[in-house]
Amino acid sequence: MNAKPVSNASDVPDVKPEEHGLPTLKLSTIFAMTFGFFGVNMAFSLQSSQLGRIFQTIGTDPNKLGFFFILPPLAGMVIQPLIGKYSDKTWSKRFGRRMPYLLIGAPVAAIVLILLPNAGSFGFGYGSAAALTFAAIATLFMDLSSNVCMQPFKMVIGDMVNEDQKDLAWSWQQSFSNLGGVLATLVPFVLAFMGVANVAPKGEVPTTVKIAFYLAAAVLLITSLYTISQVHEYDPKTYADYHGIDTTKAQPKTSLWELLKKAPKVFWEVSVVQFFTWFAILYLWTYSTGAISINVWHTSNASSAGYQAAGNWYGVLTCIQSIASVVWGMLVQARTKPEHRKFWYQFGLVAGAIGYISIFFIHDKYLLILPFCLIGITYITMNTQPFSLLTEALNGENEGSYLGLFNCSICLPQIVASIASFWLFPMVHNFMPAMFIIGGISLLLAAVSVRIVHSKFDKPATH
Question: Which of 421, 382, 416 is nearest to 274 (CA)?
């Protein structure tokens, strides 16, 4: 039975959960709760596409890059479960349950976005401990604040979107995310084409990159404020009715550890897939600029014009990857039926594996477009299907906590991959393109692991 479409709490009828469940939302409401990801992912896209470039430009030894990529997932492992736990218990009559955290996180993220690309501009000295420490701390706070911004967008879908519209909502959110990535990663290339300086004194980040970060800060603030003003979350009573939560019984205070022990089986099954997926993604972020610079521009000198050109081209490829994600999301992902989620999950991971392994062999910058299109398919798949598979198994109680805890399945493999790089990178003779072979194998293992996931929409086995 379809309930009347609603857009905010004031429109919610007095219903019994067993009769209605979550109502069908207006498309304008889904737009409002997903559009803000445009700004959030500008920050994350710049972090993923430019962080390796920034650290190498200010003088980081390539063998030690993995250390700096440990910090963002560590921040995510801490902050997202806490945001989930405490936002489950939060209620502001004016701002709701999740939006207050976005209201705090967005301004902080904007400030750090302005500071990070200036790590080499304060006179600390090329490769100095002061410059690297400043950049590391800025990276840590950037990821902390970006995670505070990101988590409310994920949680509000679980709070308000029914099963029939969930794939659509996740797909829209990731499509807006990818569009934000398009803008963020394309800016340095376009600015350089327009004549803005793409090289800088040794140890300083080029102006093209700085402007991209400043633009991301402004867009993040604007889009976050739009979502805060337009999304009206269900009040506690309505939320409980829609999710079938008995408010007459006192809800016990449950620790995150207790919730983990009670987590549905699919939480752990999807986490296995997540481990191999995000292990691979970390190497995309860490080694892409260096691999492209070596394979196409034949240089590993971070101060050279060739290396900086490779950094800009990686931004273009990330833009193409994002466009491929949007197209795939609109044509395929948004039309996915719940019973077909696992098939498309595997398909997307295999596509990425082919893309990764291809990068090792390609020495023409235009041919790199194809593997990055395949990685784009992977990117939208891994940011939609795991959440659909998890939230279909949750009942609305402690939903934010579980989504926060689930983020550990994204962060932990990145930490493992960073630590493993200290062993794997020398093993491949410090040759950055070879790290994509390792990433491709990891994505193939992820695709195989999808077979262990149990969905409530799986067809029963016949005997």
Answer: 382
